Amino acid sequence: MSAASGPEIERLIQLLAKLPGLGSRSARRAALYMLQKREALMEPLAAAIQEAADKIRPCGECGNLDVSDPCAICRSPGRDITSICVVESVGDLWALERAGAFRGRYHVLGGVLSALDGVGPDQLNIPKLLERAGREDTQEIILALNATVDGQTTAHYISDKLEHAGVGVTSLARGVPVGGELDYLDEGTLSAAFKSRR
Amino acid sequence: MEWSDVARILAVRPHGETSAIVDILTPSQGRHAGLVRGGRSKSQRPVLQAGNRVHVTWRARLADQLGNFQIEPDHLSAGALMEDPLALSGLNAACALSVLSLPEREVHRAVYDAFEVLIETLNDPDIWPALYVRWEAGLLSDLGYGLDLKRCAVTGVEDDLSHVSPRTGRAVCSHEAEPYRDKLLALPGFLKGLGDVNEGDIGAGLALTGHFLERRVLWPTDRVLPEARHLMQDRLERAGRL
Protein backbone atom coordinates (compact mmCIF):
# COMPACT_ATOMS: atom_id res chain seq x y z
CA MET A 1 0.00 0.00 0.00
CA SER A 2 2.72 2.46 1.00
CA ALA A 3 4.57 1.89 -2.27
CA ALA A 4 1.44 2.64 -4.26
CA SER A 5 0.46 5.81 -2.36
CA GLY A 6 2.39 8.87 -1.26
CA PRO A 7 3.14 9.98 2.30
CA GLU A 8 0.22 12.45 2.20
CA ILE A 9 -2.30 9.65 1.74
CA GLU A 10 -0.51 7.56 4.33
CA ARG A 11 -0.76 10.41 6.84
CA LEU A 12 -4.44 10.91 6.03
CA ILE A 13 -5.12 7.21 6.58
CA GLN A 14 -3.16 7.16 9.84
CA LEU A 15 -5.09 10.16 11.21
CA LEU A 16 -8.46 8.79 10.12
CA ALA A 17 -7.64 5.47 11.78
CA LYS A 18 -7.41 7.30 15.11
CA LEU A 19 -11.10 8.25 14.95
CA PRO A 20 -13.55 6.17 16.99
CA GLY A 21 -15.11 3.40 14.93
CA LEU A 22 -12.39 3.39 12.30
CA GLY A 23 -9.56 0.90 12.00
CA SER A 24 -6.78 1.10 9.43
CA ARG A 25 -8.78 -0.81 6.82
CA SER A 26 -11.90 1.34 7.12
CA ALA A 27 -9.71 4.48 7.30
CA ARG A 28 -8.19 3.49 3.99
CA ARG A 29 -11.65 3.06 2.47
CA ALA A 30 -12.76 6.43 3.85
CA ALA A 31 -9.63 8.14 2.50
CA LEU A 32 -10.13 6.60 -0.92
CA TYR A 33 -13.80 7.58 -0.94
CA MET A 34 -12.97 11.16 -0.05
CA LEU A 35 -10.29 11.36 -2.71
CA GLN A 36 -12.77 10.14 -5.28
CA LYS A 37 -15.32 12.76 -4.12
CA ARG A 38 -12.83 15.58 -3.78
CA GLU A 39 -15.11 18.49 -4.56
CA ALA A 40 -18.36 17.10 -3.21
CA LEU A 41 -16.98 15.78 0.07
CA MET A 42 -13.29 16.16 0.80
CA GLU A 43 -12.91 19.92 0.41
CA PRO A 44 -16.13 20.83 2.31
CA LEU A 45 -15.16 18.35 5.02
CA ALA A 46 -11.67 19.83 5.34
CA ALA A 47 -13.17 23.33 5.52
CA ALA A 48 -15.72 22.24 8.13
CA ILE A 49 -13.01 20.61 10.25
CA GLN A 50 -10.82 23.69 10.00
CA GLU A 51 -13.71 25.98 10.92
CA ALA A 52 -14.68 23.81 13.87
CA ALA A 53 -11.07 23.70 15.09
CA ASP A 54 -10.82 27.49 14.83
CA LYS A 55 -14.13 28.43 16.38
CA ILE A 56 -15.33 25.78 18.82
CA ARG A 57 -14.15 26.28 22.40
CA PRO A 58 -15.21 24.94 25.79
CA CYS A 59 -17.70 27.20 27.55
CA GLY A 60 -16.04 28.95 30.51
CA GLU A 61 -19.25 28.63 32.49
CA CYS A 62 -20.38 25.02 32.02
CA GLY A 63 -17.69 23.23 29.96
CA ASN A 64 -19.97 22.57 26.96
CA LEU A 65 -18.48 22.91 23.48
CA ASP A 66 -19.74 25.81 21.39
CA VAL A 67 -18.62 28.62 19.10
CA SER A 68 -19.41 31.22 21.73
CA ASP A 69 -18.39 31.60 25.35
CA PRO A 70 -20.73 31.42 27.30
CA CYS A 71 -22.36 28.72 25.18
CA ALA A 72 -25.84 28.93 23.64
CA ILE A 73 -27.37 26.95 26.52
CA CYS A 74 -25.86 29.21 29.19
CA ARG A 75 -26.96 32.33 27.28
CA SER A 76 -30.46 31.12 26.47
CA PRO A 77 -33.13 33.20 28.28
CA GLY A 78 -35.60 30.33 27.86
CA ARG A 79 -33.61 28.07 30.15
CA ASP A 80 -34.39 27.55 33.81
CA ILE A 81 -31.53 29.24 35.66
CA THR A 82 -32.40 27.72 39.03
CA SER A 83 -31.29 24.17 38.20
CA ILE A 84 -27.95 22.81 37.03
CA CYS A 85 -27.57 19.30 35.68
CA VAL A 86 -24.09 17.85 36.31
CA VAL A 87 -22.82 15.45 33.63
CA GLU A 88 -19.56 13.60 33.08
CA SER A 89 -18.91 14.59 29.46
CA VAL A 90 -20.24 16.68 26.59
CA GLY A 91 -21.55 13.42 25.09
CA ASP A 92 -23.82 13.00 28.12
CA LEU A 93 -25.02 16.60 27.74
CA TRP A 94 -25.90 15.93 24.10
CA ALA A 95 -27.78 12.76 25.12
CA LEU A 96 -29.90 14.72 27.62
CA GLU A 97 -30.52 17.45 25.06
CA ARG A 98 -31.66 14.82 22.54
CA ALA A 99 -34.13 13.51 25.11
CA GLY A 100 -35.40 17.06 25.72
CA ALA A 101 -36.20 16.11 29.30
CA PHE A 102 -34.31 18.93 30.97
CA ARG A 103 -34.71 22.65 30.35
CA GLY A 104 -32.19 24.00 32.83
CA ARG A 105 -28.44 24.51 32.48
CA TYR A 106 -25.60 22.03 32.55
CA HIS A 107 -22.21 21.56 34.10
CA VAL A 108 -19.68 19.25 32.42
CA LEU A 109 -17.19 17.70 34.87
CA GLY A 110 -14.80 16.39 32.23
CA GLY A 111 -14.53 12.92 33.80
CA VAL A 112 -15.12 11.11 37.08
CA LEU A 113 -12.97 10.42 40.11
CA SER A 114 -10.83 7.36 39.61
CA ALA A 115 -8.24 6.28 42.15
CA LEU A 116 -6.52 3.90 39.75
CA ASP A 117 -6.28 6.32 36.86
CA GLY A 118 -5.10 9.10 39.16
CA VAL A 119 -8.11 11.32 38.51
CA GLY A 120 -8.67 13.38 41.65
CA PRO A 121 -11.04 16.28 42.40
CA ASP A 122 -8.41 18.75 41.11
CA GLN A 123 -8.52 17.25 37.64
CA LEU A 124 -12.27 17.78 37.33
CA ASN A 125 -14.33 20.93 36.79
CA ILE A 126 -15.59 20.83 40.39
CA PRO A 127 -14.45 24.24 41.76
CA LYS A 128 -16.47 26.03 39.08
CA LEU A 129 -19.52 23.92 39.98
CA LEU A 130 -19.19 24.91 43.63
CA GLU A 131 -18.96 28.54 42.57
CA ARG A 132 -22.09 28.22 40.43
CA ALA A 133 -23.94 26.41 43.22
CA GLY A 134 -23.15 29.30 45.56
CA ARG A 135 -24.88 31.85 43.33
CA GLU A 136 -28.14 33.27 44.53
CA ASP A 137 -30.33 32.00 41.68
CA THR A 138 -29.24 28.34 41.91
CA GLN A 139 -31.73 26.16 43.78
CA GLU A 140 -31.12 22.62 42.58
CA ILE A 141 -28.11 20.58 41.44
CA ILE A 142 -29.06 17.42 39.56
CA LEU A 143 -26.31 14.80 39.53
CA ALA A 144 -26.76 12.95 36.21
CA LEU A 145 -23.65 10.79 36.50
CA ASN A 146 -23.25 7.24 35.26
CA ALA A 147 -24.48 4.44 37.53
CA THR A 148 -20.98 3.02 37.84
CA VAL A 149 -18.76 2.74 40.90
CA ASP A 150 -16.64 5.69 39.74
CA GLY A 151 -19.67 7.74 38.69
CA GLN A 152 -21.43 7.28 42.02
CA THR A 153 -18.24 7.89 44.00
CA THR A 154 -18.01 11.23 42.20
CA ALA A 155 -21.69 11.94 42.87
CA HIS A 156 -21.24 11.32 46.61
CA TYR A 157 -18.12 13.49 46.64
CA ILE A 158 -19.97 16.39 45.00
CA SER A 159 -22.96 15.92 47.34
CA ASP A 160 -20.60 16.26 50.31
CA LYS A 161 -19.03 19.39 48.86
CA LEU A 162 -22.47 20.93 48.31
CA GLU A 163 -23.70 20.06 51.78
CA HIS A 164 -23.46 23.64 53.04
CA ALA A 165 -24.11 25.41 49.73
CA GLY A 166 -27.81 25.86 50.50
CA VAL A 167 -29.02 24.12 47.33
CA GLY A 168 -31.06 20.96 46.83
CA VAL A 169 -29.00 18.04 45.49
CA THR A 170 -30.81 15.30 43.56
CA SER A 171 -29.72 12.32 41.45
CA LEU A 172 -31.27 10.53 38.50
CA ALA A 173 -33.42 7.53 39.40
CA ARG A 174 -32.20 4.01 38.70
CA GLY A 175 -34.37 1.13 37.59
CA VAL A 176 -35.93 -0.78 34.73
CA PRO A 177 -35.13 0.82 31.35
CA VAL A 178 -37.84 1.31 28.73
CA GLY A 179 -38.08 -1.95 26.79
CA GLY A 180 -36.09 -3.76 29.47
CA GLU A 181 -37.02 -7.28 30.50
CA LEU A 182 -36.69 -8.22 34.16
CA ASP A 183 -35.15 -11.53 33.16
CA TYR A 184 -32.11 -9.80 31.73
CA LEU A 185 -31.56 -7.14 34.39
CA ASP A 186 -28.66 -7.37 36.79
CA GLU A 187 -29.22 -7.68 40.56
CA GLY A 188 -28.10 -4.12 41.29
CA THR A 189 -30.60 -2.59 38.86
CA LEU A 190 -33.41 -4.79 40.11
CA SER A 191 -32.81 -3.95 43.76
CA ALA A 192 -32.50 -0.23 42.92
CA ALA A 193 -35.78 -0.44 40.97
CA PHE A 194 -37.52 -2.09 43.90
CA LYS A 195 -36.20 0.48 46.36
CA SER A 196 -37.50 3.36 44.25
CA ARG A 197 -40.90 1.80 43.42
CA ARG A 198 -43.93 4.07 43.66
CA MET B 1 -3.48 -22.31 28.67
CA GLU B 2 -6.79 -22.12 30.48
CA TRP B 3 -8.19 -21.89 33.99
CA SER B 4 -11.55 -21.11 35.55
CA ASP B 5 -12.30 -19.67 38.95
CA VAL B 6 -14.57 -17.40 40.91
CA ALA B 7 -13.27 -13.82 41.23
CA ARG B 8 -13.97 -10.32 42.48
CA ILE B 9 -13.57 -7.44 40.04
CA LEU B 10 -10.97 -4.93 41.25
CA ALA B 11 -10.61 -2.48 38.39
CA VAL B 12 -11.72 -1.99 34.79
CA ARG B 13 -9.84 0.08 32.23
CA PRO B 14 -11.20 0.77 28.75
CA HIS B 15 -9.18 -0.80 25.96
CA GLY B 16 -9.95 0.41 22.48
CA GLU B 17 -13.54 1.18 21.74
CA THR B 18 -15.26 -1.98 22.80
CA SER B 19 -12.95 -3.96 25.07
CA ALA B 20 -11.71 -3.58 28.61
CA ILE B 21 -8.70 -4.73 30.60
CA VAL B 22 -10.04 -6.11 33.85
CA ASP B 23 -8.14 -6.66 37.08
CA ILE B 24 -9.59 -9.42 39.27
CA LEU B 25 -8.80 -11.11 42.55
CA THR B 26 -9.17 -14.87 42.57
CA PRO B 27 -8.62 -17.50 45.27
CA SER B 28 -6.45 -19.77 43.13
CA GLN B 29 -4.62 -17.34 40.81
CA GLY B 30 -4.26 -14.23 42.97
CA ARG B 31 -4.59 -10.85 41.32
CA HIS B 32 -4.83 -11.36 37.57
CA ALA B 33 -5.50 -9.13 34.61
CA GLY B 34 -7.07 -10.05 31.30
CA LEU B 35 -8.77 -8.63 28.25
CA VAL B 36 -12.56 -8.79 28.05
CA ARG B 37 -13.69 -8.43 24.45
CA GLY B 38 -16.92 -6.45 24.33
CA GLY B 39 -16.26 -5.41 27.93
CA ARG B 40 -17.73 -1.96 27.29
CA SER B 41 -20.98 -3.28 25.88
CA LYS B 42 -24.35 -2.60 27.50
CA SER B 43 -24.64 -6.16 28.72
CA GLN B 44 -21.11 -6.38 30.17
CA ARG B 45 -20.86 -2.98 31.87
CA PRO B 46 -23.15 -3.81 34.84
CA VAL B 47 -21.12 -6.98 35.41
CA LEU B 48 -17.73 -5.30 35.12
CA GLN B 49 -18.05 -3.07 38.17
CA ALA B 50 -15.55 -3.14 41.02
CA GLY B 51 -16.62 -5.43 43.84
CA ASN B 52 -18.84 -7.74 41.77
CA ARG B 53 -18.26 -11.49 42.12
CA VAL B 54 -18.00 -13.30 38.80
CA HIS B 55 -17.10 -16.64 37.27
CA VAL B 56 -14.11 -16.18 35.05
CA THR B 57 -12.35 -18.32 32.48
CA TRP B 58 -8.92 -17.18 31.34
CA ARG B 59 -7.45 -18.35 28.05
CA ALA B 60 -4.12 -17.55 26.40
CA ARG B 61 -1.71 -19.32 24.07
CA LEU B 62 1.23 -18.77 26.43
CA ALA B 63 1.26 -18.45 30.22
CA ASP B 64 2.87 -15.01 30.26
CA GLN B 65 0.42 -13.43 27.83
CA LEU B 66 -2.30 -11.06 29.02
CA GLY B 67 -4.94 -13.49 27.78
CA ASN B 68 -8.69 -13.18 27.40
CA PHE B 69 -11.28 -13.40 30.13
CA GLN B 70 -14.72 -14.82 29.63
CA ILE B 71 -16.78 -13.45 32.48
CA GLU B 72 -20.17 -14.55 33.79
CA PRO B 73 -21.96 -12.80 36.68
CA ASP B 74 -22.23 -14.61 40.00
CA HIS B 75 -23.16 -12.06 42.67
CA LEU B 76 -23.35 -8.40 41.63
CA SER B 77 -22.67 -6.55 44.87
CA ALA B 78 -21.63 -3.17 43.45
CA GLY B 79 -25.14 -2.02 42.50
CA ALA B 80 -26.42 -2.45 46.04
CA LEU B 81 -23.50 -0.45 47.49
CA MET B 82 -23.73 2.53 45.14
CA GLU B 83 -26.40 4.27 47.19
CA ASP B 84 -24.32 4.19 50.36
CA PRO B 85 -21.36 6.61 50.23
CA LEU B 86 -19.66 5.06 53.26
CA ALA B 87 -19.84 1.52 51.86
CA LEU B 88 -18.75 2.73 48.43
CA SER B 89 -15.71 4.42 49.95
CA GLY B 90 -14.76 1.14 51.67
CA LEU B 91 -15.18 -0.77 48.42
CA ASN B 92 -13.05 1.74 46.51
CA ALA B 93 -10.31 1.70 49.15
CA ALA B 94 -10.14 -2.11 49.29
CA CYS B 95 -10.07 -2.46 45.49
CA ALA B 96 -7.50 0.31 44.97
CA LEU B 97 -5.23 -1.04 47.70
CA SER B 98 -5.47 -4.58 46.31
CA VAL B 99 -4.43 -3.37 42.86
CA LEU B 100 -1.56 -1.32 44.27
CA SER B 101 -0.16 -3.80 46.74
CA LEU B 102 -0.80 -7.33 45.50
CA PRO B 103 1.72 -8.67 42.98
CA GLU B 104 0.09 -10.02 39.83
CA ARG B 105 -0.40 -13.78 39.53
CA GLU B 106 0.75 -14.52 43.08
CA VAL B 107 -1.73 -16.55 45.11
CA HIS B 108 -2.94 -14.93 48.35
CA ARG B 109 -5.83 -17.11 49.38
CA ALA B 110 -6.23 -15.56 52.83
CA VAL B 111 -6.40 -12.05 51.33
CA TYR B 112 -9.10 -13.19 48.90
CA ASP B 113 -11.15 -14.89 51.62
CA ALA B 114 -11.00 -11.81 53.85
CA PHE B 115 -11.81 -9.55 50.87
CA GLU B 116 -14.86 -11.68 50.15
CA VAL B 117 -16.10 -11.31 53.75
CA LEU B 118 -15.35 -7.58 53.73
CA ILE B 119 -17.34 -6.90 50.55
CA GLU B 120 -20.29 -8.92 51.80
CA THR B 121 -20.43 -6.92 55.05
CA LEU B 122 -20.02 -3.45 53.53
CA ASN B 123 -23.73 -2.81 54.00
CA ASP B 124 -23.26 -2.96 57.79
CA PRO B 125 -21.34 0.15 58.93
CA ASP B 126 -21.09 -1.18 62.50
CA ILE B 127 -18.96 -4.09 61.35
CA TRP B 128 -17.05 -3.36 58.17
CA PRO B 129 -14.61 -0.63 59.33
CA ALA B 130 -13.06 -3.04 61.86
CA LEU B 131 -13.05 -5.80 59.25
CA TYR B 132 -11.34 -3.47 56.82
CA VAL B 133 -8.54 -2.79 59.32
CA ARG B 134 -8.20 -6.53 59.94
CA TRP B 135 -8.10 -7.12 56.18
CA GLU B 136 -5.25 -4.62 55.81
CA ALA B 137 -3.37 -6.29 58.70
CA GLY B 138 -3.92 -9.64 56.98
CA LEU B 139 -2.71 -8.18 53.69
CA LEU B 140 0.51 -7.05 55.39
CA SER B 141 0.94 -10.47 56.94
CA ASP B 142 0.32 -12.33 53.67
CA LEU B 143 2.81 -10.10 51.85
CA GLY B 144 5.45 -11.01 54.42
CA TYR B 145 5.34 -7.86 56.52
CA GLY B 146 3.09 -9.08 59.31
CA LEU B 147 2.90 -7.27 62.62
CA ASP B 148 4.06 -9.21 65.66
CA LEU B 149 1.26 -8.58 68.13
CA LYS B 150 1.64 -11.71 70.26
CA ARG B 151 4.06 -10.49 72.92
CA CYS B 152 5.92 -7.40 74.06
CA ALA B 153 9.15 -6.86 72.15
CA VAL B 154 10.88 -5.62 75.33
CA THR B 155 9.63 -7.82 78.17
CA GLY B 156 8.07 -10.76 76.32
CA VAL B 157 4.79 -10.47 78.27
CA GLU B 158 1.62 -11.31 76.38
CA ASP B 159 -0.79 -9.07 78.29
CA ASP B 160 -1.41 -5.34 78.33
CA LEU B 161 -0.01 -4.73 74.84
CA SER B 162 -0.89 -1.16 73.94
CA HIS B 163 1.46 0.09 71.22
CA VAL B 164 3.47 -1.01 68.21
CA SER B 165 6.95 0.08 67.24
CA PRO B 166 6.76 2.00 63.94
CA ARG B 167 10.18 0.63 63.02
CA THR B 168 9.91 -3.09 63.78
CA GLY B 169 6.14 -3.68 63.76
CA ARG B 170 6.39 -5.45 67.14
CA ALA B 171 3.98 -4.86 70.02
CA VAL B 172 5.03 -3.14 73.23
CA CYS B 173 3.28 -3.39 76.61
CA SER B 174 1.86 -0.23 78.14
CA HIS B 175 4.49 0.01 80.90
CA GLU B 176 7.40 -0.08 78.46
CA ALA B 177 5.55 2.12 75.96
CA GLU B 178 4.90 4.91 78.43
CA PRO B 179 8.15 6.95 77.93
CA TYR B 180 7.88 6.66 74.12
CA ARG B 181 4.12 7.01 73.77
CA ASP B 182 4.29 9.89 71.27
CA LYS B 183 6.66 7.95 69.02
CA LEU B 184 4.78 4.64 69.01
CA LEU B 185 1.63 3.64 67.14
CA ALA B 186 -1.43 2.81 69.21
CA LEU B 187 -2.58 -0.81 69.07
CA PRO B 188 -6.39 -1.14 69.12
CA GLY B 189 -7.69 -4.03 71.19
CA PHE B 190 -9.76 -5.56 68.40
CA LEU B 191 -6.62 -6.22 66.32
CA LYS B 192 -5.41 -8.53 69.11
CA GLY B 193 -8.80 -10.22 69.10
CA LEU B 194 -9.76 -8.65 72.43
CA GLY B 195 -13.22 -7.25 73.07
CA ASP B 196 -15.33 -4.77 71.17
CA VAL B 197 -14.33 -1.92 68.93
CA ASN B 198 -14.05 1.20 71.09
CA GLU B 199 -14.06 4.84 70.11
CA GLY B 200 -10.84 5.76 68.35
CA ASP B 201 -9.95 2.13 67.57
CA ILE B 202 -10.71 2.29 63.84
CA GLY B 203 -8.65 5.47 63.44
CA ALA B 204 -5.77 3.92 65.38
CA GLY B 205 -6.03 0.72 63.36
CA LEU B 206 -5.99 2.57 60.04
CA ALA B 207 -3.01 4.65 61.17
CA LEU B 208 -1.18 1.47 62.19
CA THR B 209 -1.80 -0.57 59.02
CA GLY B 210 -1.44 2.51 56.80
CA HIS B 211 1.99 3.24 58.28
CA PHE B 212 3.34 -0.23 57.49
CA LEU B 213 1.58 -0.59 54.16
CA GLU B 214 3.13 2.65 53.01
CA ARG B 215 6.64 2.07 54.33
CA ARG B 216 7.00 -1.64 53.66
CA VAL B 217 4.81 -2.35 50.66
CA LEU B 218 4.28 0.86 48.69
CA TRP B 219 7.28 3.12 49.22
CA PRO B 220 9.85 0.57 47.95
CA THR B 221 8.04 0.65 44.61
CA ASP B 222 7.68 4.45 44.69
CA ARG B 223 3.97 4.43 45.46
CA VAL B 224 1.80 5.86 48.21
CA LEU B 225 -1.53 4.91 49.76
CA PRO B 226 -4.34 5.39 47.24
CA GLU B 227 -6.51 8.51 47.31
CA ALA B 228 -9.53 6.22 47.77
CA ARG B 229 -8.21 5.17 51.19
CA HIS B 230 -7.85 8.80 52.29
CA LEU B 231 -11.39 9.51 51.08
CA MET B 232 -12.66 6.50 53.07
CA GLN B 233 -10.85 7.76 56.17
CA ASP B 234 -12.40 11.23 55.73
CA ARG B 235 -15.83 9.74 55.31
CA LEU B 236 -15.49 7.48 58.35
CA GLU B 237 -14.37 10.48 60.38
CA ARG B 238 -17.36 12.55 59.28
CA ALA B 239 -19.67 9.64 60.08
CA GLY B 240 -18.13 9.48 63.58
CA ARG B 241 -16.83 5.96 63.06
CA LEU B 242 -13.08 6.41 63.45
What are the segments of chain A in which pLDDT stays under 50 over at least 5 consecutive residues? none
- Overall mean pLDDT of chain A: 91
Mean pLDDT of chain B: 93
- Number of helical segments with 4 or more residues of chain B: 7
Instruction: Give, in order, the helices and strands of chain A.
Output: HHHEEHEHEHEHEH
- Main sheet attributes: strand count, strand direction, barrel closure of chain B: 5 strands, antiparallel
**SS content category of chain A:** alpha/beta
Rounded to the nearest angstrom, the radius of gyration of chain B is 19 Å
Anisotropy-based shape of chain A: globular
Q: Tell me the count of domains of chain B.
A: 2
Strand residue content of chain A: 5-15%
Q: In a few lines, what is going on in this structure?
A:
The complex is a heterodimer of chains A (198) and B (242). Chain A contains 8 helices and 6 strands; from the N terminus they run αααββαβαβαβαβα. Chain A is α/β, with parallel strands linked by helices.
